[in-house]
Amino acid sequence: MLSIQRISPLALLLALSGTAAAAPQRAHATVTRSGPSPSSTERAAPAEPSEPWLGATDAVEARRGARPVILLTGYWPPTNESVRRFSQNPTKNPGGWVGSDWMGRGYDVVSYFPEFNNPNCSNCGKGFGDLEVDYQDTTADFARITDIHRPIAIITFSRGGAFREWEVESNQFNYSFWIDDFVAPRQPTPAPPDSTVASHATRLSALPMQEIVDDIDASGLGLNAFICYTQGGGGYLSEFIAYQGVWYQARHADPSQPDWCIAAGHIHVGAQIGWADASSAVDVSLTSLVDYLDQVRACPPIQPYCEGLANSVGTGAQLSAVGSPSLAENELRLLVQRVPDFAAGLVFYGPQTAMGTIGNGQLCVGGALTRLPIPVTANNLGVMRFPIDVTAAPLGIGPMAVTPGSSWHFQAWYRDSGAGAGSNTTNALSITFCP
Predict the structure, then answer these.
(1) What span, in angstroms and rounded, lies between the C-alpha atoms of 210 and 222?
(2) Which pLDDT belongs to residue 216?
(3) Fewer Cβ atoms within 10 A, N terminus or C terminus of the chain?
(4) Residue 326 three-state SS
(5) Under CATH, which number does the domain 52-298 receive?
(6) What's the domain of life for this entry (predicted)?
(7) 390, 408 in Cβ contact below 8 A?
């Protein structure tokens, strides 16, 4: 086992892989970040609205750049009713839109959902309006809605569970076969919907999941809030729209993009939660999300670079970050996905970028390297989760301690016994920590 200390790149690589690895060929300067100012609320101007009710409202100005937009979607009750007040459509929401500069926090909140002839339905059918319970309709509507609003964050809601569950879904799958909907063609077209990753590949929630669960628990609503790490969202329209949300976020995850989307994910709402409690829980979850968005936007954006090379299970493994690199918040977490099931791995970091090789992968971090103290084993979905504690060694103490304004580069290494040299690496992340 490696001790927590400054060691040479070659020594680290030999200790990690157990095989000879090429030394870094050259080091590069620290990555320079670009993108929006952390305090800026400016957004790119969306396309002209296709919803006629938006033409003469203040919402148009909000959508054109005054404030970033958080998108909420619902499906079956109580989820459609719990987000109805955020609809800008006066026919659906005659009481008036409440999402303009929601709670004075600097974000507009909008919602879209289908309606049903029986608003308390159990077996609801296809419904009518936006996001009908139909794969083709949901695909087209979701693309139209996100093109209009270009959201900075997305929460998709649907009914799931028989009791008072508030289930935050971690995993969304790119299935090649789904549960049939009501009208032919009864499967998504195409299936799988996402051609950029393998069939059955997982996309992870980018919501502040634990913060949402903690805040729901503290709300006094009496809900059973938890994160589902081990399964998907059910293989029906719930998971389909959940996948649309996290896929959109992945395509707009670069902070330098004018349509930067920071977070997206899905929440299943238990059938015994009434409309009032569901609405209150939406507000709690929104507050958790807005707090998180503020934290992320207050720090320099995390920049991915380099890439993970193909492994024995398909496309290269991906390293991503959830949370803010704020030292005061200490809530940053690193996620690795698309590694072999139950593979062992670890994260290491250093002060420079580099170009070299290790096992079947690329070495993208240079200078004196140190690994995080706890190796991790992937779950049965090929996902690893690495907690980050900036108060403990090595991040909080010693020569490799992170400080406000310091920039460090992180990469994950993992075993891959099914290919070549028996190990591989992910892409890398360049992170500048803030107070």
Answers:
(1) 17
(2) 98
(3) N
(4) strand
(5) 3.40.630.20
(6) Bacteria
(7) no
